[in-house]
Design goal:
This protein is mainly α. It is about 80% helix and about 0% strand. It contains two helices and no strands. The longest helix is centred in the first third of the chain and has 30 residues.
Amino acid sequence: MAERRKVARYMLVTGCVLLGIVVLTHLAERFGIFPAMGWGKPDSPGHYLDLFSAIAGVVLLVTGVSVRSI
């Protein structure tokens, strides 16, 4: 039981960090930080960093909450 809560906590923290990365990528796009990342352009590293972080963050948060509530 304690091990399950520990895993759920790590999932929640990692999910929050990944969603924080989404916020940071949007701020970097807005202020033009690291223009080589191609913020806002399809098929750019910035696009895929944002997409991966958003999807993985949401999946980890939902999974962490589900594991914690069992």
